[in-house]
Design goal:
globular, N-succinylarginine dihydrolase, 3-stranded mixed sheet, binds N~2~-(3-carboxypropanoyl)-L-ornithine, N-succinylarginine dihydrolase activity, 448 residues, EC 3.5.3.23
């Protein structure tokens, strides 16, 4: 281990994974709200992807799911009595609230936080800011536990700095790394941090979407950049095209992905594409010919096909300096325009040389693809050695987590099951054991 690398930390799908139509503006979430879910299959699909990446030689970590249904939130909202009584009352009087506090949405760890690697920060530590996720109630309750799990995973304050989430108000709406990409030569060198926002909160004259919410503001990204101690000329901001948000692109990672010297994005992704390109090339500096701007034209793949297939919600991974592999969901293979485009892409002269397909249907049906499920953390060798080793995927952990899923997870879940006190019991028992497997300590309220 001599050079820095990029680790992926995937969210392990929790035992209450279900489809409740909670995310206005997210087409899959709204369309699948009547479906029953399969938490066991969901967790195993995620584990299979994690194991495959570990087997390919990438550093792969696991982030634990949160305590759900979240009884402390129901108590905060006025329900009282025993846990079973609270579940029963919530199911009767506020079923959508019960669904919200039962969501396994923390699986999408691209939304867990924004991470700045040590090559970029003023104190040369890796900085983490959990995302407040204020736009959706069910996600706004994630950041505290997310912060605790990140601190239990990246423990050593010599290497890692943890900030609290930004103020939980729309002006600072923050969706984390789903709207953040880092470009660099080597992962350990200083890079360019690219922040994409949906609207300017304090400028009502600036463009913003009309139909669906812009979840992430410019002001949130600027605050994160200040906290992380980033240099102004290493930071680029770009506004998402409001029209694509209105078409269902609720996060920028549904329409663009970047890695090292490659930016792979759709023609319609940004409000001002020419400016985005110019700003990135200026920040990149000399050797501009090394930077790959791979723009997918709408004539080849319409925006609707991007949303249906999640083409851009892929993981773009470096196998060596000039060789990248793209990890895509099965939906890409089933979309003729997308699949034809991908075949031509890998034959062309971009650094992307291979496409690998993974079945992530359980997560995809709530609008989460391969990229949503992972948080990227670029690490130097010394930082890598400082991570909690119990969270790193390998043969033994894969085996152990599969047995753990078999022991605790159901293979079918309907909205009505969320009121079952047995589900709460199963979920807490599972997480209690998981904190031992991953050596996290007591990160959940029920353990305190
Ligand atoms: N990065 C992908 C995030 C997907 C997530 N979906 C959800 O929360 C849907 C949950 C439901 O509808 O049951 C979201 O929209 O934030």
């Amino acid at each position: 281990m001599h050079t820095a690398t990029e680790a992926n930390f995937d969210g392990l799908v929790g035992p209450t994974h279900n489809y409740s139509g909670l995310s206005f503006g997210n087409v899959a979430s709204l369309n699948n709200s009547a479906q029953s879910s399969n938490p066991k299959a969901a967790a195993k699909q995620g584990l299979t992807k994690m194991k495959a990446l570990a087997d390919m030689g990438f550093v792969q970590g696991v982030l634990a799911p949160h305590e759900r249904p979240h009884i402390p939130t129901l108590r905060r909202l006025g329900f009282s009595g025993s846990d079973a009584n609270i579940l029963q009352q919530a199911a009767k009087h506020a079923p959508k609230l019960l669904a919200a506090v039962s969501s396994a949405s923390c699986m999408w760890t691209a939304n867990a936080a924004t991470v700045s690697p040590s090559g970029d920060t003023s104190d040369n530590r890796v900085h983490f800011t959990p995302a407040n996720l204020v736009n959706k109630f069910h996600r706004s309750i994630e950041h505290q536990t997310t912060g605790a799990i990140l601190q239990a995973t990246f423990k050593d304050d010599k290497h890692f700095a943890h900030h609290p989430a930004l103020p939980s108000v729309e002006h600072f709406g923050d969706e984390g790394a789903a709207n953040h990409t880092r470009f660099c030569h080597d992962y350990g060198e200083q890079g360019i941090e690219f922040f994409v926002y949906g609207m300017e909160a304090f400028n009502s004259k600036a463009p913003r979407p009309a139909k669906f919410p812009a979840r992430h503001t410019l002001e949130a990204s600027q605050a994160v950049a200040r906290h992380h101690g980033l240099l102004a000329d290493q930071v680029v901001y770009a506004q998402q095209n409001p029209a694509v948000i209105d078409a269902g692109v609720f996060h920028n990672d549904v329409i663009a992905v970047g890695n090292r010297n490659a930016h792979f994005y759709h023609q319609d992704a940004f409000l001002d594409t020419a400016k985005m390109k110019q700003d990135l090339l200026t920040a990149w500096g000399d050797r501009a010919s090394d930077f790959h701007l791979i723009e997918v034209p709408r004539s080849a793949v319409p925006v609707a096909d991007c949303i249906q297939s999640y083409l851009f919600n892929s993981q773009l991974l470096s196998r060596s300096d000039k060789d990248m592999v793209l990890i895509v969901p099965g939906e890409c293979e089933n979309n003729p325009a997308v699949w034809a485009y991908l075949q031509s892409l890998i034959k062309g002269n971009s650094p992307i040389n291979e496409v690998q397909v993974f079945d992530l249907k359980q997560s995809m049906s709530n609008g989460g693809g391969p990229a949503c499920l992972r948080l990227r953390v670029a690490l130097t060798p010394a930082e890598q050695r400082a991570i909690n080793p119990a969270t790193l995927m390998n043969d033994a952990l894969f085996e152990r987590l599969n047995c753990w899923v078999d022991k605790y997870y159901r293979d079918e879940l309907h909205e009505k099951d969320l009121a079952d006190p047995q589900l709460l019991h199963e979920s807490r028992s599972a997480l209690d054991e998981l904190t031992q497997i991953l050596a996290l300590g007591s990160v959940y309220e029920f353990q305190q």
